[in-house]
What does this fold into?
Amino acid sequence: SALKKKFLIKGDGSLLGQSMHCLRLAERLISLQRNALDLENAKWAFLDEKFDLYENILLTLHEGENFFQKDSIDQLAFQYLEQSKARSLADALTQAEFSKQITAQDSLFRLLSELKRQLFSTQDLINRELRVSTGSQKLSELRENVVQLDRKIQRCKLTIEEKHPRYFKGKYGYQNPSISEVQDVLRRKNQVLIEFFWGNESVYAIGIGGDQVVFRKIGPVDSIARVVANLLSHLHDEQSTMSLENFDLFSSNAFKLYKILIDPFSALLTNKNRLQIIPDGLISQVPFEVLLEEKPNLSQVNYLSLKYLIKSYSIGYAYSSSMLIQKVSQRRTADPSILAVGFAGVKTLSNSNLELKDIEGAEQELNALKTRFQNGKFLTEGNATELNFKSMAPDFDIIHLAVHGMGDVQNDFAASMYFTSPVNATEDGELHAYELYGLKLNALMAVLSSCESGLGKGYKGEGMISMASAFTYSGCQNTLMSLWKVNDQASIKLIDNFYGYFLEGEPIDDALRKSKLSYLDTADELTADPKIWATLVAYGSLDGIHKNDKSKILVATSVVIALAILFLSFKYFNRPVS
It folds into this structure.
């Protein structure tokens, strides 16, 4: 800070360079401290507290545009944007990949998963008890239990590290990708990446194309937050009306956000049709598909006529660039197996008077899936239990949940999904996010067709700790999540169309885009309201995971034709001479 003040007085660029050097050393120290922590919520809280450092680094880079080399600014901006993103999730996916190479049946890993589940469960109980009392005997006992569980986890980890040292390879050696590595991926996919940073004072972003990089300070947090909040108030309102005032407000805010978040990177978008977004802060709650490339000038409500961004681009999301290019096994299968669960019956939550009712479209949604998949397990009514889900989920390529969900942006570990609870069950039917942290999944994709599955408490440096991020943490490579309450009837159509395109071999983001555009093709001026069709977004690498048989059919056809030609040629040249 002292060096930067001297720079502002003297204008000597070397002082700014020295200031940057100090900031980078401080960040290195913080990163090492964070990596030495074992409890996930301790890591989240630690980085949240130290997050100002990353904003200072980005501000210094922005101020140094006339003193530092552009390539150096771009690379450093990208490096620290990445350092501030979803570190726990990236670590978890790296470790999940190593553990797959060992064995899912290793008793040490089963023990570690169970201890983690108990730890998160105890932490959740502590949070619940704190809402009632801050000095109870029960609270003291729970805290002592956390200490004992942590000690057991440390002993288990040490044993695993001795037996399987590669499992902890990423623990102290977290490596960010280079811009060139990201560009290689983007060129292959004909894609542009835009990564955001939501600070305390300003919002920054970096756009990366195949050959170009653009780093921008895109605006103050307060003014951007107001526009985001105005847009979200429309999307979260469950009632669709023909109000011209509401239509104008939505259109105005959707266009403003386009100008703020996308337009600064328009030079990168020429001749591209795919966007990869890495959001941050409040931006994580925005479906970019609904942003408007043009502001309409209409005297009547007509959501169908609007120029949504999805009409120009397939849009996918990720928690960080590192997770996009991780060397995870890109398994593809011609016959993907699916576990689909549909909520059935009425349920009163144990910790409130809230009553969850039967989801009208869940059974229809699962019936549609049965016609799409030959290799599947479909749980409804009394079989749609939390216990069945937990026991079966690790064995399937795709997990589909058409159940009630609740996000909680205030409390730790409070995001949940709800299943049927049979009498005298060992599970209460409420699947907490923390329970997934101890569950080892091998799914290539999880489709969370439930309300608010993408919402959770936000931590700077990690994003929202939601049900969706918990599925990623447990090992799912791709996740479809909802950002607000799902419209049952629209969801059936959107999900069915999505799986239709997906099973044709389309990448996940392309399949979801085509599904939404198909919906819009049959919508009218009112039912084209984005609050109805835009709630689902896709996170992950989003490569196609279904290997259809088109290529095999083509090869077989070619072989048959070739054999036919040979046969006819043989007959022709061996015919009797007259």
Summary: The CA atoms of residues 192 and 209 lie 5 Å apart. The first helix runs from residue 2 to 10. Residues 550-556 have pLDDT under 50 and may be disordered.
